[in-house]
Design goal:
The complex is a heterodimer. By secondary structure, chain A is an all-beta fold. Helices cover 0% and strands 49% of the residues of chain A.
Chain lengths: 116, 117
């Protein structure tokens, strides 16, 4: 167990709906990253939050958005769901400091989203 | 942009034997981290081993070791004395050291490892 928890574990939504996924980061970690893992693929970086601000984004449209709260937990919101959004969504938490002193990233168990 | 390639979609190994998983990557950076992660059916990514590019010595963690060839941009994982619990999907991953990239990982497409009793 890594101390990173995600909810819910499974979710079924209809095309066009909106969804919110949640991630509770490991105690003491100030950075949360979100990844989308399609079936049979490696995880793809969506975005990252550091001290409540987005500070990095992958090649995902604006309908993918997020938040990070003062306790460093995070949400991933996806609007106007499409069938291709069906995937495993992983969050990873870590402690970011200046220079090379960045801790390991610990991953949650993921949320399996199915869009029908 | 950095890319990570795993050319072996599936591998199998007899229990107690040794297996090597391959990974190549492309980057213009001189300093970075490389990782191997294991993803069992439980879906949680588990760190297996980490290599810092500026260190010439290959990383080792118990039965797991890497062969890091920086010039060739190759990073293979060797699992010795394979156990049934090693069966999982294995992902090779790259992470920049640059401060403005945070913890963004670039993952390969994975290698599914089967361990035969």
């Amino acid at each position: 167990e890594t101390g990173v928890t995600q909810s819910p574990t499974h979710l079924i939504k209809t095309r066009g709906q909106q969804v919110t996924l949640r991630c509770s980061s490991q105690s003491g970690h100030n950075t949360v990253s979100w990844y989308q893992q399609a079936l049979g693929q490696g995880p793809q970086f969506i975005f990252q939050y550091y001290r409540e601000e987005e500070n990095g984004r992958g090649n995902f449209p604006p309908r993918f958005s997020g938040l990070q709260f003062p306790n460093y937990s995070s949400e991933l919101n996806v609007n106007a769901l499409e069938l291709d959004d069906s995937a495993l969504y992983l969050c990873a938490s870590s402690l970011s400091v200046t220079g090379r002193g960045r801790t390991e990233a610990f991953f949650g168990q993921g949320t399996r989203l199915t869009v029908v | 942009a950095q890319t990570v390639t795993q050319s072996q979609p599936e591998m199998s190994v007899q229990e107690a034997e040794t297996v090597t998983l391959s990974c190549t990557y492309d980057t213009s950076e001189s300093d970075y981290y490389l990782f191997w992660y294991k993803q069992p059916p439980s879906r949680q990514m588990i760190l297996v081993i980490r290599q810092e590019a500026y260190k010439q010595q290959n990383a080792t963690e118990n039965r797991f070791s890497v062969n890091f060839q920086k010039a060739a941009k190759s990073f293979s994982l060797k699992i010795s004395d394979s156990q049934l619990g090693d069966a999982a999907m294995y992902f090779c991953a790259y992470r920049s050291v640059a401060a403005n990239t945070g913890n963004q990982f670039y993952f390969g497409t994975g290698t599914s490892l089967t361990v035969i009793p």
